[in-house]
Amino acid sequence: MIGTPSKTFLVALDTGSDLLWVPCDCQQCSPTNWASYGVQTQGLEFAVYGTSSSSTSKNLSCTNSLCSSSVASPSSACSSNTQACEYTIKYMSSDTSTSGFIVQDVLHLNYEAPESGNTTASIYFGCAQLQTGDLLQGVAPNGLFGLGPEDISVPSTLARNGVISTNSFSMCFSSGDSSGRLVFGVEALSGIPSTPLVPINPSVYYVIATTKFSVHGNSVDASENLIFDTGTSYTTLPPSTYQSLGEMMNNQINAPQFQLNGTFDYCWNTSDSSILDSLPTLTITFNGGSSWDVSDPYVRFVDSKGNVVFFCLGITPSSTGIIGHNFMGGYEFFFNQQAMSFSWAPSTCKRSTISSSTLVLSC
To answer: How many other C-beta atoms can be found within 10 angstroms of the C-beta atom of residue 151?
Structure first.
């Protein structure tokens, strides 16, 4: 919830960008009614933020140091501290962007333990007046929560202002339903797998380094730096690693290949449905030796009766390696910017072992 009085926004979580933005003072925004996205409700609508409707809202000046970042920059005409800091974010999807100006307002947070109550914290976010491309087609109809490492992001702001003691957060996506968790100021539990974050300049992404991919005891050596990006639907790998892994998977799956003229190259027929009960596990080993068993690296295609007719390895080739959202189900991931570490542990997203002193947003 944001502002005074508060408004609730259903934002998409994105570790591949830094700025939280919500529809605001709209010039061109996504439709606000849920029915536009195929959700039949009784008149429910997405919230729209208005700078004049929140008593705690104020513009970030174009002279503020935070206006010099990867998303925001002072215009050449910036000559007064009363001028707003404008921003534009262009996403990987073709012709997809958001633009507007940056405001400061309060974010309402709940403590993990219900008896600890709640609090508010001052943050910066985008008043998103103009959306283009996929953002007008329901990709993030009510805004996007950038969780990247830059100073303007919410985790960095909370840590800088002493709201949380560590510039860290965890997030979790369940495998079976749409439940999830976002927790600020939490450190990874001792003993769980971890790997160093790869330092990059400018520090705009969370990058982790792999050493190999394994399936049923067979492995492909692959020293790749991969961006961890919740905003990318499907995982991507550089072509040579992608092909080697795809062929290794093909040798392990006892089903005829299916030629799909579309997104995926490695697909298999399910004329024998029992194959779905014994699909091989994909394991990724990272720098430092810790490994991660991907809960479900496959994409299933069903007929009109809901029967799976074929399935594919949910990876596509790209010059930029990305761990996408399809690999993230069933785990809680810990990002610690101060320790430069990334950790993970299996989770249902419904049970917490976090201390009551941390702040939590439920998503």
So the answer is: 15
